[in-house]
Amino acid sequence: MNYKNITNDSLFDDVFRLEKLQEMGDPLYRLNQVIDWELFLPILEKVYEKDRKSNAGAPAYCPIMMFKILILQRYYNLSDFQTEYQIIDRHSFSQFLGLVRSSSIPDEKTIWRFRERLSVLDLERELFEQFHHVLNNEGLLVSEGKIVDASFVEVPRQRNSKKENEYIKENNCAPKEWHSNKNKLRQKDVNARWAKKRNEKHFGYKNHIKIDSDSKLITDYTSSSAEVHDSKALDLLIGDDTDQDCKFYADSAYTGERCDKLIDESKMENNVNEKGVRNKPLTDQQKENNKEKSKTRARVEHVFGFMENSMGNLQMRCIGFERSSTIIGLINLTYNLFRYEQIIRLKLMVK
């Protein structure tokens, strides 16, 4: 019996493979088709803006390519080591980054250093806002409603004693005895906190977001440790000029005098789901009103669903609030990039 020879190599093999990936709906190829990555360059170049004593050493990698590597990490939830490995191994990653077989590929330490510098300079917020301007200019953020919600973002759980946890909670720093072991200290997150919701325990941080109710694009965000109540971040999410005269949707966690005041001061129409209290349950009319509001409010769950299921990104591999906030910002930006591509693709399909 004769078998097809799979060992012959051809100059056209890479082209055929790329075409096959495109036919199968490669999300990275589709993203490259609609995103103008150059718009991020002025911000990304700040990563390399530091005094150098000489011009010795290898030149830096292209900041746009390094930024796209961070987007890959967030979309596929990869460690630095796995990212380096997958760039070498996966054809779609190489195509997305514009690499050829002879290209030099940044190693895991280079990826870590670039992200660390991004975090120190707080550039993830600038990158998010830069793309926000694009979305706004293209008329994708003009709906009459805003939705606010929060989700846990897990980090590796700490195996501390009860006494150690109490000290960390009271002092917001590591116990003195940990400082004698620098390796242990590097692996301890003293900013992350435990929280319990519906009998499930979570350890880490929270991603608080505000989305446009029509496009489901994230318009603003902030982060906190996990134990912070969802409503505590509301004053950081609403109140800008674009919120005025919009309908405000949220679940019953955002009820109460403080939240009502913030919504009123923001000149928004309060459509928060009502909450029953002891000896005063919701009336049938209130339940019906909540049901109607939830048809819109539930759209924010689609955002978190994409992050958790498609991106696998409601967990992180990092230590400390600053680094976690950077990754949360990149998660939100990555979601917006892919959501934007989806919106553009659906518009073209309708035409």
How would you describe the overall organization of this protein?
The chain is α/β, with parallel strands linked by helices. The protein has 3 domains: 13-48 and 59-121, no CATH class; 125-155 and 197-350, Nucleotidyltransferase, domain 5; 156-191, no CATH class. 47% of the residues lie in helices and 13% in strands. It is built from 15 helices and 6 strands. It has helices at 13-23, 27-34, 41-44, 63-76, 80-89, 91-97, 108-120, 123-137, 162-171, 182-186, 234-237, 257-265, 284-297, 299-310, 321-350, and strands at residues 145-154, 193-197, 200-212, 218-225, 247-250, 269-272. Strands 1, 2, 3, 4, 5 and 6 form a 6-stranded mixed β-sheet that branches. Helix 2 packs across helix 15 (321-350), helix 5 (80-89) packs across helix 6 and helix 7 (108-120) crosses helix 15. It is globular. The model has no long low-confidence stretch (mean pLDDT 89).
